[in-house]
Every structure is written in structure tokens, then in C-alpha cells.
Amino acid sequence: MAVTPTGTPAGTAPTPALRLFAGKRGLMLVSILFLNFVVWLDTAKFSLLNPFWSADLGLDPAQISSVTASYLLGYFPLLLLAGILADRLGAKQMLIICVLGVTVLSSTMAFVHTYGEMWWRNFFFGIFFGFLWAPSQRLLSVWFPGALGARATSTWMSSTLVAGVIAPAIALPLANHLSWRDAFLIVAALGIPALIMLVLFTSNRPDKLRGISEAEAARIQEEHKGAAVREKLTFRELAAALKSRSVLTMIIATALATTPTWLSGPWLPYGLITLEKVNPDTIAWVSPLIALVPVLFGLVNGSLVAKFFGGRTRPWLALGPACGAIGFLMGVLLQDSSWVLWGFFIGAFAFLCDPMFWGTVNSYWAGIARPEVTGTLNGASAAAQVAVGWIITDQSGKWINSAADGRAQLNTIWIVGAILFALAIIPVYLSREIRVDQAVAATVPDPIPARTPEVTS
Questions:
Q1: Measured between alpha carbons, how far is 69 from 255 in angstroms, rounded to an integer?
Q2: C or N terminus of the chain, fewer CB within 10 Å?
Q3: Are 82 and 130 in contact (CB under 8 A)?
Q4: Confidence grade of residue 14 (pLDDT, cut at 50, 70, 90)
């Protein structure tokens, strides 16, 4: 029986799951997933350990929110810059800068002893953290086009969320039985194998990867409908992609939809450990079970996007923030209930927004423009997100109602987050519809026009 280069009988296609992790492309994906897991683990444990470092440094709630938000000031400008540089110079180079900087900055936590030192450490950490987001999505768009891209991006999103699942089991016991500084140093060591895998197993273009077969590289190009994927674009091409009205409205939607979950980072553990007096060791094993919900959903989100609603992306981009709004509002209604149920809606149900939105929007960018500009578009949307995120995270400490009892002190925080989630749905439906099968390489030269007719819902 004749077989294709993938080893399947001629005339048949390999299953999506096999294609996702098969060959050198699969090894590249594993490298990106591990890198993102390590960097996000580093980030997750900072908010998680705020009851420890805030007590050690003697910080009040306003200072806690200020320190937590300080990394966003460094993060914000680098998101857009890293996206542009990924499209212009190469995404792999940007990721190398990221993992090197994050590893070094995490190690410097051993020398932080004052509020000012903590603030500046976080600011510089944010700069290097900014080199992760858009370059990762740029690589995924180039290596996994079309409907397969939705699966790859959703799986990648789960790798960022799984850090939140594992972080409590790693960071809380270390901080509780050793010190919070030890927790930072131990996690920082994971950056070394992540860097080695990145250097050895990734490339900006499939045909440039060391050891990849001609058949596999040709198959990936064919998945782009035969259009050549370019490694570097001009500034004119990048600017042209930003002129679309739908791009601008979706950037606004991203800024609103993906920001409120940041409020959970500092205030969920604060509510449980500081206000509710729950034992950190208890949270260390309960919290991962709660956080596992959005991670598992992220693994199937890409398949669901391609299967339901005719492959349209807008319904999923709207369902995400709808879940976020419901989750936060349930946190208000359940303020006097079991802390496990309270934590589930704030830390799990609301977080379904992340795999639904971020796991889908990359396919939207690749369809509304082309895969080669997803670095710039993701950078622009993430920068807008951080601009909103910095404001609400920095101000959130002032919304605590100390006159209320227990977890009710945090109700205003959850209400503000729910409003932002709900508002995000409006610009989603002001944007043009894109199907996941439209997320393939452009077949037309510069400038970049809209490649498909309007698709109504």
C-alpha cells in the first residue's frame, strides 16, 4: 500500500492529534510549551507568595498592589516592541532574550529586602517577560496554519495556565517550610533546560530547522496552501496590517477580555491566606485541582473552535469573557460560602476566558491578515491589555473594603472585573468574522489587504 511522507496510507490524512506532535514540528512545539511553562511558573509564584513577601517586607495592601503592578510598566512597551522585532528579526531570538532575562531576574530575588528594591526588580522582570508572548504566537502561526493552528495555540495556552496549577504545589511548601526566596531560586534553575531546548529544537521557519526532512518542511508549506512563509517583513507590511478596523476593534476586545483575571493573581491568595486564614499547605493541594479546569479545557478548545459554529472564531471570543463575568459575579454572591466553591468560580470558571480567548485570537489574527504579522498584532493587543491591566491592578488595593467581614472585603474588585469582561463582548461583535480555515499564509504581495469577503454570523 502506498503511503504518504507522514506514514499514513495514501489518500488519508493523519489525525489532528498526531500532526500536532509528530516529527520535528512536534519537538519544536514541546520546546515552546516547556519554555512558556517555566516563564509563567516564575510569574505565577510571585502573586501566589504575596502573603509571604509582603509580610517579610512589611507592605500594606496599597504597596502590595503597586509592587504587583510594577512589572506591567516594563512589560507594556516590550509587548509591542517584541512583536514587531519577532516579525522583523526573528521570534526565536526574542525568546532567547526572554528566558535569559527572566532566569537572572528571578535569581536576584535573593537580594531584595525593601519595597523600593522589590518594585524595581519587578519592573525589570516585566521588560524581559515582554519578549515571550507575541514571539511564541508568531512561531505557532508559521508552524501550524489553519485549523491546526487553533489546536496548537490552545495547547500553548494550556502550557501557560498549567503553571498556575503546579505553582501552589511547588511554591507554597517551599515558602512555608524554607523561605519565599528559596522558592524563587529553585524555580529559576528551570530556565537553563528551557534555554537549551529553545536553542536546539526551534527555528523561525520550518525549512530552516536543523535536521528537518524536506518532506516535512514541504508538507508544512502545503498546509499554508502553498504560499511561502517569509521570515522577515518590512515595517510597511506590519503597519498595513494595523489599518484594518476589525484589527483595531479586536485589540480593544483583547484589552478588556484578558485583563480582569490578573485581579485573581494577588487577591485570591490574599483572600484565602490573609483574610480567611486557610493553611497554605491546604491551598497547595486544593488550588491545583481548581486551576486544572481551564488547563484541561484549553487542550480541547482548538478542536471545539474548528468543530462548532462552522469554525467561526467570534462566538468563542465572546464566550470567554462571558464565563469570566459569570465567575467573578459568583465570587461576590458566594462570599459567605465554602472557600473552595468561592475559589473555584474566581480561579477556575472565570479563567475559562483565557483558553477560549487567547486560544482562538491567534487564528483570528492569521485569518484577518497573515501568519507572518501575528507577532505585531499579538504584541499590539497584549500591550493594550497591559495598559488596562496596570491601571486596575495598581488601583485594586484601594478597592478593598476593610469595614466588611472576611472575603466580602474583596467584592468591589470582582465587580469591576466582571464589568470589564462583559464590555469586551461588544468590540468582538463589531469585528469581522473569521473562520479558522482562513488562517493560512497570504498569497498576495505587499500591502496586506483583507483576503476574504465578509462572513456574516
A1: 16
A2: N
A3: yes
A4: very low
Gap between the Cα atoms of 128 and 98, Å rounded: 5
Cα–Cα distance between 48 and 164 in angstroms, integer?
A: 9
Q: Which residues pair with 3 in a beta bridge?
A: 9
Q: Could you please report the per-residue DSSP string of 111-143?
A: G--SHHHHHHHHHHHHHHHTTTHHHHHHHHHHH
pTM to 2 decimal places? 0.67
Q: How confident is the model at residue 369 (pLDDT cuts 50, 70, 90)?
A: confident
pLDDT in tens, 123-146: 999 999 989 988 998 888 888 876
Q: What is the CA radius of gyration of the chain?
A: 21
Is residue 335 within 8 Å of 271, Cβ to Cβ?
Answer: no
Q: What is the pLDDT of residues 398-446, one digit of tens each?
A: 898 888 888 899 999 999 999 999 999 999 999 998 887 765 544 433 3
Least confident of 35-49, 150-164, 424-438: 150-164
Cell triple for residue 81? 516592541
Strand partners, 335: none
Which residues fall within 8 angstroms of residue 412, CB to CB, at 6 or more apart? Answer: 399, 400, 401
List Cα–Cα distances, 315 to 262, 286, 368, 425, in angstroms.
23, 32, 16, 10
Q: Which residues of 411-441 are buried (b: 16+ CB within 10 A; e: fewer)?
A: bbbbebbbebbbbbbebbeebbbbbbbbbbb
Grid-cell match 504575596, residue found: 50
The answer to whether the beta carbons of residues 334 and 342 sit under 8 Å apart is yes
> Whole-angstrom Cα distance, residue 93 to residue 300?
30
Mean pLDDT of 276-301: 82
Query: The C-alpha cell of 163 is what?
Result: 503553571
Q: Is 70 exceeded by the pLDDT of residue 215?
A: yes
